[in-house]
Amino acid sequence: MARTFPWRTQGPSVASTPSSAPRSWREPRRLARLFSQDPDTRLSRTLSYALRHGAVELGLHMGADGFVALQELLALPSLAGVSEGDVRRVVETNEKQRFALRPAPSGGLQIRANQGHSLEVPELELTPLETPESLPPTLAHGTRRRLWDSIRRGGLSRRGRTHIHLAPGLPGDAGVLSGMRPDSEVAVVIDGPQALADGIRFFRAANGVVLTPGDAHGVLPPRYILCALQLRPSRE
To answer: Quick one: CA torsion of 166, 169, 174, 176, rounded to 10 degrees?
Structure first.
């Protein structure tokens, strides 16, 4: 049985943790982690940045549905030496189904990220979840334990993205492929039916992740948090 954290401080506030330090302070550590990863993981992260956050900055022509021409993407300097076959392999073997490929009308292939955008993608294929019955029985957001005190006081935030990500269950549950980082230490369980009744919108992405824009401030307030469950070092 998973451990439920009581409604009290579990550690330092977010402001005192490295995750909220200036980006310049964190960049060397981020780069060190990136270059220590295997090539497919590095490629997946590079694709994620380009397709979720950096398309405009990188000069990519992204459609309203989030798709980009694969050959245009492969022309980026950061993807020098990467082949169409490399991208196909990463897309097909990604357990979280982060990406989708499709034939382009004019030939070739197009690629997109299925969710996780900070860029506005007005025609991203999202299925509205409009009734309590359409919501998964469990909705959970994965996070680090040190952030729990901030979340319990302020709720979950989009943090610069277009949606808050929720897994349709807990790690190890049948059918749960994505929606929670594998290194998450805590699962914050959400009262989806109550949030829905109060006007919070929910959607299902193509890879099964449940997304919500939160309230008018981009937040899922703490009144919708049912509990927090310990996932690491072990799910109890």
So the answer is: 10
